Every structure is written in structure tokens, then in C-alpha cells.
Amino acid sequence: MGSLSCYPPCVTVFCLGNPAEAHQPSTVFDRADEFGAIYEENYRLLVGTVRDHFYISEIDAEGLAHEVFLAYFLKADEVSNSRAWLLSAIFNAGRAYMRWRARHVPLPAAFDQERSDPEFARISEALPDQMAAREAFACVTARCQIALRLRYLEGYSIPEVATELNTSSKYAAKLVSRCLRQAQDRYTKRGERDAGS
Question: Which residue in 40, 128, 156, 173 has its CB near the most CB atoms, within 10 A?
């Protein structure tokens, strides 16, 4: 990207603090030394913040940081907390830059392709199984639904299922086994019936 001056000024200046408490103007040399120290202390922070938060290139981040420092230099006498002002200004600059970029710069060709999120990839793989399990659960009695939900969806052990159902562990194991077999049989018959129609 060429010159950064081709888009509207992106630094919105806020005075963080009471203007009456802002320090008095100093001589030009004292101000330059103070500005140099603040610049050295905060430059990498501002560039890294705007680059990482808004995912922009290093060059554009450096340009935005320089614009922020220029605005700070012009307003330094009104600023009581330099670091807070600089961070606020770099976020404002980053947001304005992203708005400008969205209007004036086309997306790279890589964004034309559909990018999938790994989280959604795993969900889409498991979704048919989950839907089939829910349909199978709908084919059995309410007590079986509870037993199967506790055992397979919530991960309860057989003794925990027995406690929840207020029964013995041996009966809970038989109930879960019987309900699972019943759900499988009814779901299979339902699928065959739907395929036949």
C-alpha cells in the first residue's frame, strides 16, 4: 500500500483526564526529549497492538503508529496519561483504517475461497451421528430416553445412572443395554420404513 495520506485522518484525539490538570507547556527542547523517550518506550507496543489486534501488515501498522505519535506530539500538553492516550488513539486509528480499507481495497484472492474453521469441521463430521442418536432416542420410552441420555450423552457411569434412576447398578446396566438394543431396532425399522415409501 502506498501513502497512508490517501484516506481520512484516522486519529481521533481524546483528552484522558481533566484539562486543568494537564501539565504546562515546556520548552521545545524539553518537549522533544520527553517525546523521544515516550516514542522509544511505546513504539513497538503500538505497532504490535494494532498489527495483532486488527491483523494488518507491519508496514501499515508502523504508519498508523507514526500518525498517532504525530497527533500525540501536537496534543502532548493536553494529555495527562500518555500511555492510555496512545493506546486509545492506536485502537481508534486501527478501526478507522479497517473501515477505510473495507471501502477502498479489494479482498485478496485467497479470501474468495471458502475458508473453513476447524471447529466447524469437527461439528459437521459429528452432526449426522448426533442427529441419528436423537432420532433413535425419540423411538424409545421416556425411562429409556433418560437412561440413554445419562449414559451416552452426559457420560454417567452405570452406578451413577443407577443412583439417578433410584435403582441398583445391576438393573441399570440391564436397562441401558435393553434400551440401547430397543432404540437400535426401532430406528433401523423406521429407516427401512422411510426408505420403502
Answer: 156
Asked whether the predicted pLDDT for residue 13 surpasses 50, the reply is: no
Torsion over CA: 12, 98, 57, 8 (sign): negative
Burial of 71 (0-12, 13-18, 19+ CB in 10 A): buried
Radius of gyration for the chain, computed over Cα atoms and rounded to the nearest angstrom: 32
Residue count of the chain: 197
Enter the CATH code of domain 131-196.
1.10.10.10
Contacts of 95 (CB under 8 A, 6+ apart): 10, 54
- What are the structural domain ranges in the chain? 4-107, 131-196
Longest Cα–Cα distance in the chain? 92
Q: What is the pLDDT of residues 120-160, one digit of tens each?
A: 555 556 667 667 777 777 778 888 888 888 887 788 899 99
Do 11 and 71 touch, CB atoms closer than 8 A?
yes
| Pair 46, 86: CB distance under 8 Å | yes
Among candidate residues 12, 97, 4, 3, the one with its CA nearest the CA of residue 55 = 97
Region at 127 (left for phi over 0; alpha for psi -120 to 50; beta for the rest): alpha
